[in-house]
UniProtKB/TrEMBL annotation:
Provenance organism: Duganella fentianensis
Organism placement in taxonomy: Bacteria, Pseudomonadati, Pseudomonadota, Betaproteobacteria, Burkholderiales
Protein name (Swiss-Prot/TrEMBL): Succinylglutamate desuccinylase
CDD domains: M14_PaAOTO_like (cd06250)
All residue ranges annotated as the Succinylglutamate desuccinylase/Aspartoacylase catalytic domain in the record: 29-110
Keyword Transferase: no
Record Pfam families: AstE_AspA_cat
Length: 376
């Protein structure tokens, strides 16, 4: 194991932060997997999974079981990790700019296309190597360093440089209260399905462009974007399987659960040829995927006390009451209804909210939304 530290630009005189990552296996040898935890710095289940992965990968490396390279970032957002307000972690948005830490990553598709379009041929493997080299060159361009003068921009660039040329990218997050679920690109489902089965995902939300350039999509969309630009003329493989894994809710931080999740991730790396050895379990069937545009939020129309009427994991029907929103002063009760037929898998963990708060998510089978599809 090699531990490397990247210094970030100072946000103020006398203050610096750094981003640390671990490398297992030999750089540039075999398939590459990139795994990061807590890009939203207050989402901690992934941090514990990374802790268990560190131990397991160290043992596998000592046993000569590394067939490729694994880059593990146990705390992917030192900027957000340092943010607290009155004792409460503020790890989702940068307090200086208001930007979501998992948005505005580099959309490399057009730049990479300009670099490779005159060199593509009929050999898909050669095209893959050419595109990977162009991804690295694009991110190494000195203009990007000049544009990344502040620590948030530099952090985004550092993470992209570590991940964008990987065969597998796993971004570990969690929701407020939820069942385990995934986000991935629609074209990747056949390769993501074994991961969904191994890790026990209840919902898999698929889209080709969710809006605002989240990390996983910034890594994987290059390949289907270039495939579309190349058309039928040149074979372009979907060479990066990037997935956001939502590891249940904020408080689901315990060793038994994290160890099980880590074992499932290692099994997936075995399937992808990154790690040697037998699977710890047969690959279960995956859940049926649904479109991200069919995931319908339920928002609070007013401030009030929240009482949930259905448990997570319920199949609900459109128009069915799922929440009582109570005004404690007037005593009025508004019943909030399921927006579509679907699977009720996530909800807000606060029980008193302001107007506009997204309280619940129902995964429906029909794409109904357009524009930016992710919550703030």
């Amino acid at each position: 194991m090699e531990q490397i530290t990247i210094a970030l630009p100072s946000p103020a005189a006398g203050t610096t932060r750094s981003l640390s990552y671990l490398r297992f296996g030999q750089q540039g040898q075999g398939p590459k997997a990139y795994i990061q935890a807590s890009l939203h710095a207050d989402e901690l289940p992934g941090m514990l999974v990374a802790h268990h992965l560190r131990t397991a990968l160290t043992q596998l490396e000592q046993q000569g079981q590394m067939l490729g390279e694994v880059v593990l970032v146990p705390a992917a957002n030192p900027v957000g990790l340092a943010q607290t307000l009155l004792g409460t972690s503020q790890g989702r948005f940068d307090l200086r700019t208001g930007q979501n830490f998992n948005r505005m990553f580099h959309n490399l598709s057009q730049d990479v296309w300009q670099r490779v379009q005159g060199q593509l041929g009929q050999d898909g493997q050669a095209n893959q190597q050419l595109i990977r080299a162009a991804i690295r060159a694009s991110l190494a361009d000195g203009q990007r360093d000049l544009a990344a003068a502040d620590e948030l921009s530099a952090q985004r660039l550092a993470l992209m440089r570590l991940a964008a040329d990987a065969d597998v990218v796993l971004d570990l997050h969690c929701d407020c209260e939820s069942l385990l679920h995934l986000y991935a690109g629609t074209p990747l489902w056949d390769r993501v399905a074994p991961l969904a089965g191994l890790i026990g995902a209840h919902v898999a939300l698929l889209e080709t462009e969710s809006g605002d350039d989240p990390f996983d999509e910034a890594c994987s969309r290059i390949w289907w974007d270039i495939a579309a630009l190349a058309g039928e003329q040149f074979p372009i493989p979907l060479a990066c399987v990037a997935v956001t894994i939502e590891l249940r809710g904020f408080i689901d931080v315990d060793h038994a659960t994290a160890a099980k999740d880590a074992a499932a991730i290692l099994d997936y790396l075995r399937l992808q040829g990154v790690v040697a050895g037998e699977l710890s379990q047969p690959v279960p069937a995956a859940c049926e995927p649904t479109p991200l545009a069919g995931c319908m939020p339920v928002a609070a129309p007013a401030a009030g006390l929240v009482v949930y009427l259905r448990e997570l994991g319920s199949t609900v029907r459109a128009g069915e009451p799922i929440i009582d929103l109570i005004d404690p002063v007037s005593g009025s009760v508004q019943q909030l209804l399921a927006p579509v037929d679907g699977y009720y898998f996530a909800r807000e963990n606060r029980r008193y909210v302001g107007p506009g708060t997204r309280l619940s998510k129902v995964a429906g089978k029909v794409a109904l939304r357009s524009g930016p599809l992710l919550s703030a």
